[in-house]
Amino acid sequence: MWDLPGPGHEPASPASAGGLSTTAPPGKPRAVVLWVSLRDLRTFKVEHEFDAFSGSLSDFDVHGNLLATCGFSSRLTGLACDRFLKVYDLRMMRAITPLQVHVDPAFLRFIPTYTSRLAIISQSGQCQFCEPTGLANPADIFHVNPVGPLLMTFDVSASKQALAFGDSEGCVHLWTDSPEPSFNPYSRETEFALPCLVDSLPPLDWSQDLLPLSLIPVPLTTDTLLSDWPAANSAPAPRRAPPVDAEILRTMKKVGFIGYAPNPRTRLRNQASSSCSEQGLLFVAIPYRLKESDSEFDSFSQVTESPIGREEEPHRHMVSKKYRKVTIKYSKLGLEDFDFKHYNKTLFAGLEPHIPNAYCNCMIQVLYFLEPVRCLIQNHLCQKEFCLACELGFLFHMLDLSRGDPCQGSNFLRAFRTIPEASALGLILADSDEASGKGNLARLIQRWNRFILTQLHQDLQELEVPQAYRGAGGSSFCSSGDSVIGQLFSCEMENCSLCRCGSETVRASSTLLFTLSYPEGSNTDKTGKNCDFAQVLKRSICLEQNTQAWCDNCEKYQPTIQTRNICHLPDILVINCEVNSLKEADFWRMQAEVAFKIAIKKHGGEISKNKEFALADWKELGSPEGMLMCPSIEELKNVWLPFSIRMKMTKNKGLDVCNWTDGDEMQWGPARAEEEHGVYVYDLMATVVHILDSRTGGSLVAHIKVGETYHQRKEGVTHQQWYLFNDFLIEPIDKHEAVQFDMNWKVPAILYYIKRNLNSKYNLNIKNPIEASVLLAEASLARKQRKTHTTFIPLMLNEMPQVGDLVGLDAEFVTLNEEEAELRSDGTKSTIKPSQMSVARITCVRGQGPNEGIPFIDDYISTQEQVVDYLTQYSGIKPGDLDAKISSKHLTTLKSTYLKLRFLIDIGVKFVGHGLQKDFRVINLMVPKDQVLDTVYLFHMPRKRMISLRFLAWYFLDLKIQGETHDSIEDARTALQLYRKYLELSKNGTEPESFHKVLKGLYEKGRKMDWKVPEPEGQTSPKNAAVFSSVLAL
């Protein structure tokens, strides 16, 4: 059924005509149609909707899987007939290529005699036939000669051999395709015979290899059958035991060698783990097959393989728009025309999500907005090639420099993928698993949280700083045998094991984070018992459990009681929520309902009846007295987490934990001299949540409370504000939104609490640890590299760059992963994921002085990742150039070259090059705009194409470069010469009008030459003769 609703009136009696259902009030004209709805004939529910025209719908027809429509569009002067027919594919439920016709379509019908032709009729009598799936249609137009001025109706006979037209004078015009057409004057549907009531034999599926032939009925016989094998030739094949539920294994307690666990209630009574019906065989007994499925509440098996179409019908999903997984829409220009400002109105920097294993972007933002961690990490520098602390410090530096532009953590994630412990913990996802959302993101980010804190703690314990990198590497935070990560996050504990023989063993330990341990039986308790978050946290920190342990006194394993006592509280309290099943999710949901009822009663219990409440019934919440100073109802929903908690160390090594509110602070006064009395107040700083979305497989976002120092540094104001960080989407939010968790789609994963006045305890000065010594000569990693092959001269001490010096830069890249694209039904290509590039060669040439044009950096970057394409034609990189065993180039690590460029950026030099935006993006550097002189923009007119370096060099410098391959030294030197030419033509930028005329001549010449450099025969490129003997003679 097709439902065509119209605006402006209430639906009246339906008027149907040929399967067309519209609504028209009695005595009034037919309603204006705006969209087409597909309804289920059994339930009459709307299954899908198609947007028709901006004005109204004139006619439509259906044939097979195609729906064709014509109508009117809104113009400045009113409604105008749209000459584009919209065609929809009902299999994919989306529009295909529209058809442009040469008449004003008022009526249309399919004529599927031989092909699915369309007849398009205008009211003036013009008729055109075309194919709905063809890109090119003949423009033959036939004319109907009506008696009246307009045609009012049109239809096709059931035999498809005649066309009938009705005009405004009441005349009917008949067109036929033969002199004697066939008509069916009593057209009705074919009546079929009743189904056979005799029981038929069950159908046999011959595609099943395990189908027993005994199901085929055969006559009875007394002879021996071939299947009557003796018992000696057969053996019993029992079913394999199904896997034990993970929830049972998690909650199981062992007594001796026997384990006991409560029923997780994940299956109905007498329900088997798999059945024959799941395999599609109702009557066939086949061997037992283990079912591989995830019974957790956040598993998604309906994620579309293609991301195209995932954003359709957003109103049908409960996930708020700002929480949905954001994707970058790539065009033929890449990222240049993508508007990141639409997603981020602030000056804070987001992170791009298309890099492999970028699921940790939210946690990187959390660590960045911890002021002591940010300063500590940026003060660290070591000689280790793949050091997460160093790479995280480089990324934090980029986030500091950015003014709202997104950054990418490609170098950090590159180092992360090389750490064996990360791979062993399952933290490195395959591209297919990450794209399809098959990974358990909540559990994954909690493991990543524990891993990154441990790894940073280990990296920062290295106190020996190389001479070349000396500076602030040995941070003032550090003490011998410890790191600042340990001082910030570590909690000292005593683990006591008490055997039943009375023997007690005490062992000191420390941890960087805690995992919430929920009360037993919380999933079965439906009474709504109130349980504060502080109680659950205390139970998780001071954990007590019964387990089997070795007793030295008994000299055997004995049941022991293990308790944990806190000796010292951390400055930053990190909590993994471990909401990995329906049990924990129901506990959070139940406690939020109880907290909601308590909050309503606390403020008088006034709830308006015209409001909808999902958590509580308004009749049960007390008398409607005045609710003075009460927050809004929406702010009280789904809230169980407190903004502050108060923790106190007792004399007997106990711990008191309670929720701390603003009212408590007004009653007891601000927490002063906390350390003297052992009382600490922790404020909620960040929450990391898992967004459940069946379309995309879910995502991870963070709510972060940004402090005054960050606002002062970025925006020049001093205040605190909560923000939502969803990759490159950053949006300010209300503080209550950070603690509201609708367990249907928003599940808490990680919590960060920090002590009040934390920043005052640490030195937050950042000292740049990169010194000028990084530019001095260094040894090559290549074993076969010779001195005679050196292509650069390192800087001398008297050549150290100063502020404002020019440096020519060019970089070459290789491809690690090919581009992922999808071909649409209309023939257009949509980029799903761009190709992953890696820097392979970086060249810097002197921009002034007697050695101008001589390179002082020409590093080939060693890579351990598999290279898919060396792009030799465009990069000049050949297989083997990046391999330390066989390369003859000056090979070095990416970190070593990165430090050289960082020093040049920090010192204030200006980089000259062609297409530097892409170079810095792949190198993963953030360079201030006033330090970039890009010739691709210097020689560019607005709304015109970008011009290649090869064409600019030929036009302005009479040089022919980039013959067979590219050479970064040649490109950097050419960019410097072009910049000098730009200063000459524009008179140092003082005569823009004269330079504009030069650019107009450049573009006119380019159009005539089709932007190609002529290659006359017998003439060699000037680059072949431009050899610098001073470089080759090294």
UniProtKB/TrEMBL annotation:
Family annotation (InterPro entries): PAN2-PAN3_catalytic_subunit, PAN2_N, PAN2_UCH_dom, Papain-like_cys_pep_sf, Ribonucl_H, RNaseH-like_sf, RNaseH_sf, USP
Catalysis: reaction(s): Exonucleolytic cleavage of poly(A) to 5'-AMP
Region entry Disordered, spans: 1-25
CDD domains recorded: PAN2_exo (cd06143), Peptidase_C19P (cd02672)
Domain USP: 349-756
Alphabetized UniProt keyword annotations: Cytoplasm, Exonuclease, Hydrolase, Metal-binding, mRNA processing, Nuclease, Nucleus
GO cellular component, one term: PAN complex
PANTHER family from the UniProt entry: DEADENYLATION COMPLEX CATALYTIC SUBUNIT PAN2 (PTHR15728), PAN2-PAN3 DEADENYLATION COMPLEX CATALYTIC SUBUNIT PAN2 (PTHR15728:SF0)
Name of the protein in its database record: PAN2-PAN3 deadenylation complex catalytic subunit PAN2 isoform X10
